[in-house]
Amino acid sequence: MPTKWRGYLEAAAKSGNARACRHYWELCTLLALRDGLRSGDVFVPGSRRYSDPAAYLLTPCKWADQRAEFCQLVGKPADPARALAAAEDELGEVEEVLAAGDGPVRLDEGGDLVISPLTAEDVPAEATALTAELTEMLPFAPIVSLLIELGKRTGYLDCFTHAGGKQARSPELKRNLIAVLISHSTNLGLTRMADACGISYDVLAWTAEWYVREETLRAANLAIIGYHQRLPLTPVFGTGSELAQLGPTGYRPLRVRDTLF
Predict the structure, then answer these.
(1) Continuous H helices in 18-158
(2) pTM above the 0.85 mark?
(3) Cα–Cα distance measured from residue 225 to residue 1, given in angstroms and rounded to the nearest whole number
(4) Average of pLDDT values for 46-71?
């Protein structure tokens, strides 16, 4: 129970006013439920917005198959006893550094932790000049134009289907979807996006609620990855099939911002 409400509830209980007591109890319950939904401590089965946060994590079965590979990649032992022993050794080294008091991480006279800021590395003048030259060679392309061209080539916008199974798609739907994707990926928000593009907030919010979901984002990513795999170019960050495995296998859910931006 929030502290600021406790006095009202206690006063209502002492006065014998059952109606007021129940009223404050209901308010406290709703406030706690709201905070729980926001933090993820409370989830709604089948909800798109307040789903179980554990659904985004690896299942025990998938983790068992990938545990050895993950531990090898991060250089950590799979045995928890060995991992705890290594962590204790690292903590011992930290205690020695703190006790010395002359390193970048130390304790001051009051016993507070002090972390010195990192010094900036000097960038060679040749690297700065090369960066500027390469930047000048790149043509300027508005992000909206890129998304429109990407949609024509890959058809990723068609992957955003209506949550209720509605088949009809208005001519303005693709425009609204692009606006929603830009607002989410740039953290601009729907309100400021509505002010910037001239599309009403209600239209953008409705589009985001009914079309932009985890499964449609994943399908759009897979459409882009599939198109990327068919290109006659050597990928820098792995093949399309390798990238596609990141989503379904559970490393983390892919989102449009990861692929497009």
Answers:
(1) 18-39, 60-74, 80-100, 125-137, 143-154
(2) no
(3) 49
(4) 84
